[in-house]
Amino acid sequence: MNNALFRDLKRLTAMVEPAEWMHSDGWRLGYHLMPPIGWLNDPNGLCQFRGEYHVFYQYAPFDPHGGVKFWGHYKSADMIRWTQCPVMLYSDNTWDIHGVYSGSCLVDEDKMYLYYTGNVKHPGDYDYITTGRGHNTALAVSEDGMQPVSDQLLMENKDYPANLTCHVRDPKVWKQDGKYYMVQGARTKEDIGELLVFESEDKVNWNHINTITTPEKFGYMWECPDLYEVDGQWILAFSPQGIERDGMRFQNIYTCGYFPLYGDFRGEYTLGEFVESDFGFDYYAPQSFLDENGRRICIGWMGMPDADYTNPTADAELGWQHCLTVPCEVHYENGILTMNPVREIAALRADECEMQCSGVTAAAVNEMADVLFEPCTQEWEMILHDCLKIRYADGILSMTFLNGGYGRTERVVPVEQLRNLRLLIDRSTVELFANDGAVCMRTRCYPEGSGRGLEIHGDGLLTTYRMQSIQIIKEDGK
Ligand code: FRU
């Protein structure tokens, strides 16, 4: 903080970030958060602070294919109009010199406590799994929500249990029963993924009090854990690596989902069945927070690390890659977690159009749209912008690319009865919510050619809205 490296990184970031948000690039998103330039991955530090919503994210402004990660920053009073704030955390300390990795924000005593993983890769002939890497737990404090006033190292690898590799990261912190709790994802030396639970009285000194894992190995690493109670049910959400595809399950290279947790995460617990949170191509590392109205709100990264499909915007002349999902409200209903866009998003709707479809119907759908469909039959399909086919037949909902998938092919999910469908379409993204958010499929999508609109084969009630762009304002730091 405030050393020569900090000052240089800040200056360099300002040099590459565009002064104004440009909408000339046809893939740029109208109402989803994306990086001003370069690369974005996980959402970090989600919170509401003094009434305003804050979204931090893994940000590598110098390279659209990823580079040293900082914490980029947006804030908003209403989750619609966002302000781009100066980067909150640069990799400017010895303990985070190769990246300010993911973490969370605890709002306490009217301050932001930003917990993160400092990544260090020592030069040498290391495998960077069992040797050569430092994964440090660190804490930055901000009094105004715009810049840190302190930054300190809390724990390093030697402070974690001895059976672990160097991979221990992504602290999620919250307050409960007058104490503070932290969970971190870890990879053991036997290549088993697990969750470490820490407790603290003062937010600075942490004790490892429990380890949560499965009786049978479930992947080799658990990234980005999130542990919370919603509607009376404890949920252990995380992004495991190393789960092999099994028929229609685990179709992506890395998985993302949750275990219902019964008992007490601090002591005796049991885990229910693992449920995937998304069945599309691009969804990973989601995080949630409780807002001041008591809503559990979740945001995910619309990307998939190490996937064999790509995004054309990473090309040199466009120079950016990836985006976040819209914020979703989370509930636990009838034994399942549901996610639906926060109601604020509906304020972006314009030009409502309702039509009864039968046979083949062509509907005008804008490049930014909110589409609702209530089918009358249990077999139908729709083709969006001549590019993406969404089909429901034989109890299976599928997403198939006709073109513009950049390596994305098909994803499928069994759904017993499909009652309703919502599509949030935003130039190069589609977020699909079926059965009131019980099943989600998110994908990036790059329509080619001139065919725009929605072709529906089947009967049902279709409601479409054009979605308005959000205006991102840029706020300079002091
Ligand atoms: C998940 C992840 C995290 C890590 C971050 C680094 O996508 O690998 O585990 O903290 O990204 O950018």
Descriptive overview:
- The chain is mostly beta strands and 478 residues long.
- Helices cover 3% and strands 52% of the residues.
- The chain contains one helix and 36 strands.
- The protein has a six-stranded mixed beta sheet, with no helix packed on it.
- The longest helix has 13 residues.
- It is globular.
- The protein starts with a helix and ends with a strand.
- The mean pLDDT is 96.
- Bound molecules: beta-D-fructofuranose.
- Which hetero compounds are present in the coordinates? beta-D-fructofuranose
Residue-averaged pLDDT: 96
Low-confidence stretches: none
SSE-based structural type: mainly beta
Instruction: Give the helix proportion (percent range).
Output: under 10%
Question: Strands of the largest sheet, in order across it?
Answer: 20-1-2-3-4-36
The radius of gyration computed from the alpha-carbon positions, rounded to a whole number of angstroms, is 22 Å
Shape: globular
Q: Count the strands?
A: 36
Let me know the largest β-sheet.
Answer: 6 strands, mixed
Distance between the termini: 14 Å
- Estimate the strand proportion: over 45%
Number of alpha- plus pi-helical segments: 1
